[in-house]
Amino acid sequence: MSKPKVLLAEDDFTMVTLLKTLLKMEGYEVIALDADADVIEAVRTITPDVLLMDVHLFSQNGLDVLAKVRESDDIKNIRVLMSSGSNVKDECLKRGADGFLMKPYMPDDLFKLLSQVLSV
Known about the structure:
Layout: E1 5-9, H1 13-25, E2 29-32, H2 39-46, E3 50-54, H3 62-71, E4 79-84, H4 89-94, E5 99-102, H5 107-118
Parallel strand pairs: 1-2, 1-3, 3-4, 4-5
């Protein structure tokens, strides 16, 4: 079985480095986007199993990106996990996220949520 592919849209360099290391140690393939990358285009090109995206990106709003994903027929079924230092869980789930992680979160919480959304 191939490794689940995680596309990481996060603008905090330290967080990106940490998440890449942790996810790879757990057996995930990880592709991290540049902070100002076009997330929608990356999802179409990379076709990840799950998109792990911060709500607050440098030049984009993660909630707006999530809405565009859910409106696009070709990528609307991708699993999306949102994260933020603000408690916007209800808003993320209402807009179609498959899960939400409040920062800072423990690696085990991330792995548990990834496992849940990937097994659906």
